[in-house]
Each structure stands twice: as structure tokens, then as C-alpha cells.
């Protein structure tokens, strides 16, 4: 495709994203390219880069175009993004030639609005902090609660282009093997600093087209997400529940740490997500996982109360920690979303807690930067459930890097850790004296009765 055709494709994709304001941009982009299979891989990456640059600079672009009359169209946004990235006005005009596959020429209104941007920079000290750093005005208090004086630096790091992180599937080979196989296909990967299984590539790379990916040797997974799995410390003798499994990214990693032994149940409320995990499980060579769809009125959880050694709760959240990858999420998030999510997270924690066996662990994780979804959510849970405590520093997972190993809960950020923003906390269900006595009776041949929280009846 010519540069003009790529720009035209980017404008069409941005139109599609604007027409589906509550749908994630990556989902819209996937559907957009599926319908246009004639667009090759390189062109898809070029079109996506233009659009994602616009989404990352959305508030700043709007600020620069604020004085023009009428709507700020995708044509104007894409053009302004190019100009504020150093492109000349003459070159931008040439991209709107009106020739085959190119957009029609700029109108006099568009030309007038754009030519004043030539030579200017996207960010300026004249912009407010929330505009310059691309976060919602109403969220500033919550972000300052998390970061304090570090807010400008942390939010500036969120504006950067994320790396592409991979997790090596140790069921199929080592990190050294994966690096070698990727190098054969001209992809230069380096080991991550924190995850023991991670590899890192710069920018957008065609990983899914590689033999290493097709053979299940590598999976795309942010390093922070890998560390959440490391914190779970799931082993081959364990019975493990991935309570909000989605399409199974963390399920796959759990199976790897368990060496394909033990038993994992991957649950979710969305059947389509669970179905999407099947292909990934097969490709990874995982066979210790069963899937279960959570539905209203389901007695599955009641029958399995108190039966899991590990319960991972990757809770639905604001996604503020993934703004580098999903800049459109900044535009969709509302105060009402936060309020609803905090309530939902508490409900999920309470339901998941009943499934943890005495002495077992629950790992709560989010990709959020907000205290109300993270530490405060855990504090409130521990007030409700006195039979849970944070694990001691001596009990944390040895799979974690040394700087995280002594922490029952930790946060990760792009600025400090080079990962997406993540929070994880490991809780343990206390074994009470009564439960110890029941175990002793059972081992002596006396049937142990179930506690109300461990009712196995239907």
C-alpha cells in the first residue's frame, strides 16, 4: 500500500473506533482487518501505528484543534498527529491527493486548521497536567493517592509505546531455545529482568506468524502478568482454580509452573472467552485443565467449597495499568465504572474465598493503578473475612525475583518496572483449631463432617 492508502485506511479505522465508543479499540481493529484480508501484515502494522498514535495523543490533539469550528474529524486527528510528529504540511497535503485509494483533498477549513500546527510539538507546558499526560480530569485525586509527587513521571511513562513481552512455555523448551528459534526468523528477543520465563521484543513484531508461536513455545503475555502467576506458586500436587480465566493466558502459565500435573479449573462468566482458550491449550500442550462456565444459580461452587489449594482472582478492573497498550480505555472510563467495579470486585473476592481450602491461598490481582481497586479492596476483604491473612514474607513464592519475594502484595508500573501496571496480593486461609481436629479425626478413621463453608451437598 502507498503512504496515502495507509493513511486512508487509518482514517477509516479511526472512524470505526469512534462509531463503537464502548467497544475496545483493539477489538474493533481486529474486526476491521478481518473484513479486509487483502491488507498485508506490514500495512496492518503501519495503519495501526497511525491510529494508536492518535489515541495516545487524543487530549493533546483535541487541545491543539480546539479553536476550529465544527467537529474534529478522524481526517483532522490523523493529519494533526502527523504534523505534530514532525511531518510537513506539504507532505500531508500530498497524502490527500484524491487519487486511487487516497483520501479526497483537504478542504479549505481543514487546510487552515492544520497549517498552523506545522513545526509545533504535541506536548506543551501551556496544556494542563491532565491534558499533557492524557488522563481524565476526574481521576487526578485517585492517581495522586497512588503516586503522590511521582504522578507526572508515572503518567509520562504511560504515554510510551509498550514493549512486546513473551512468556516461554517451559513445557516445550527453554528461554535459550526460544531466543534461538525467534532469531532464526529475524526477531531479536532479550530476557526480561523480573520474570524467570519472559522475553522482550521492541515494538510491534509479527510474533504470531513465527514457528515458535505456532508450536506453542512462546505466548504473548506482559511481564507483569507473568509475575502474578509466579506469586501464585502453583505446584504439581495442587488443585488450582483460575476464577476469572478469560481466554486462559494465566491458566496456561499456571499449567507450566505445575509441569502439567495436578488439576486446574478455568472459570469465567463468558462462554466465548472460555471457548477461545481451547486452541491455546492445545497449542501449548496443556492437558491438566478443565473449563467451567459460571452461570446464575450454578451449584458448582457450593459443591467445591473449600477444595482448592490455590485460587487466582484476576479481577475485572478499570485497566488503568494497561493504558500504554489500550490508550482508548482512558476515553471510555467513567466514575460510574469505578464505582461498579469496586462493588463487583468485592463480590468476586467473597465468592472465590469460599473455594479456598484451609491452609490454601487466594491470589488477588488487577491491572489497575487505583488504590480503591487494590490495597483498599484487600483491607476491606480482611475486615469481612477474619479467616484470611496476608502471607508472611517467609511464605512468598521463590519464583518471584528477589526484590518482590519478601512482599505479600506488590505493585508494578511502567516507570519503575518496565511492565504494565499491575497489583497482586497473596492471602492465606487460616487453619482453625476445629479444622485441625477434624483432620486428625479423619486420619484416625473417624469421618470428618463438613463445615458450612465446605458443604459438598447439591
UniProtKB/TrEMBL annotation:
The active site is at residue 367. GO terms for molecular function: RNA binding; RNA methyltransferase activity. S-adenosyl-L-methionine binds at residues 268, 314. It comes from the Bacteria. InterPro entries: MeTrfase_RsmB-F_NOP2_cat, MeTrfase_RsmB-F_NOP2_dom, RCMT, RsmB-like_ferredoxin, RsmB/NOL1/NOP2-like_CS, SAM-dependent_MTases_sf. GO terms for biological process: RNA methylation. Keywords: Methyltransferase, RNA-binding, S-adenosyl-L-methionine, Transferase. Signal peptide: none annotated. Residues 154-430 form the SAM-dependent MTase RsmB/NOP-type domain. The keyword Repeat does not apply. Belongs to the class I-like SAM-binding methyltransferase superfamily. RsmB/NOP family. This is rRNA cytosine-C5-methylase.
Amino acid at each position: 500500500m502507498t503512504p496515502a492508502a495507509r493513511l486512508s485506511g487509518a482514517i477509516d479505522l479511526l472512524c470505526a473506533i469512534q462509531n463503537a465508543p464502548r467497544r475496545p479499540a483493539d477489538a474493533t481493529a481486529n474486526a476491521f482487518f478481518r473484513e479486509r484480508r487483502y491488507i498485508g501484515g506490514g500495512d496492518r502494522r503501519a495503519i495501526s501505528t497511525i491510529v494508536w498514535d492518535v489515541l495516545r495523543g487524543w487530549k493533546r490533539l483535541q487541545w491543539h484543534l480546539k479553536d476550529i469550528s465544527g467537529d474534529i474529524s478522524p481526517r483532522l486527528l490523523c493529519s494533526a498527529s502527523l504534523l505534530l510528529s514532525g511531518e510537513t504540511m506539504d507532505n500531508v497535503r500530498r497524502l490527500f491527493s484524491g487519487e486511487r485509494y487516497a483520501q479526497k483533498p483537504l478542504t479549505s477549513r481543514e487546510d487552515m486548521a492544520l497549517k498552523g500546527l506545522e513545526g509545533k510539538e504535541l506536548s506543551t507546558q501551556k496544556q494542563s497536567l491532565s491534558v499533557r499526560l492524557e488522563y481524565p480530569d476526574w481521576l487526578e485525586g485517585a492517581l495522586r493517592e497512588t503516586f503522590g509527587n511521582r504522578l507526572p513521571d508515572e503518567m509520562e511513562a504511560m504515554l510510551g509505546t509498550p514493549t512486546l513481552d513473551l512468556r516461554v512455555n517451559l513445557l516445550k523448551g527453554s528461554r535459550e531455545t526460544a531466543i534461538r528459534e525467534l532469531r532464526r526468523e529475524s526477531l531479536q528477543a532479550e530476557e526480561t529482568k523480573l520474570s524467570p520465563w519472559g522475553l522482550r521484543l521492541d515494538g510491534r513484531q509479527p510474533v504470531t506468524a513465527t514457528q515458535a508461536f505456532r508450536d506453542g513455545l512462546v505466548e504473548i503475555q506482559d511481564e507483569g502478568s507473568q509475575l502474578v502467576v509466579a506469586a501464585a506458586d502453583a505446584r504439581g500436587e495442587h488443585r488450582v482454580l483460575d476464577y476469572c480465566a478469560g481466554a486462559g493466558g494465566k491458566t496456561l502459565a499456571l499449567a507450566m509452573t505445575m509441569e502439567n500435573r495436578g488439576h486446574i479449573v478455568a472459570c469465567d462468566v463468558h462462554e466465548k472467552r472460555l471457548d477461545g482458550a481451547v486452541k491455546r491449550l492445545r497449542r501449548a500442550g496443556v492437558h491438566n485443565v478443565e473449563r467451567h462456565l459460571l452461570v446464575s444459580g450454578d451449584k458448582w461452587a457450593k459443591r467445591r467449597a473449600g477444595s482448592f489449594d490455590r485460587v487466582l482472582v484476576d479481577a475485572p478492573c478499570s485497566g488503568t495499568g494497561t493504558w500504554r497498550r489500550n490508550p482508548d480505555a482512558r476515553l471510555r472510563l467513567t466514575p460510574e465504572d469505578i464505582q461498579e467495579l469496586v462493588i463487583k470486585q468485592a463480590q468476586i473476592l467473597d465468592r472465590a474465598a469460599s473455594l479456598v481450602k484451609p491452609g490454601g491461598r487466594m491470589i488477588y490481582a488487577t491491572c489497575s493503578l487505583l488504590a480503591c481497586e487494590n490495597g483498599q479492596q484487600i483491607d476491606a476483604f480482611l475486615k469481612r473475612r477474619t479467616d484470611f491473612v496476608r502471607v508472611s514474607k517467609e511464605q512468598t513464592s521463590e519464583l518471584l525475583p528477589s526484590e518482590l519475594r519478601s512482599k505479600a502484595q506488590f505493585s508494578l508500573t511502567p516507570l519503575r518496572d518496565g511492565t504494565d501496571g499491575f497489583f497482586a496480593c497473596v492471602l492465606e486461609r487460616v487453619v482453625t483449631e476445629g479444622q485441625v481436629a477434624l483432620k486428625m479425626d479423619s486420619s484416625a478413621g473417624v469421618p470428618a463432617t463438613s463445615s458450612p463453608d465446605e458443604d459438598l451437598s447439591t
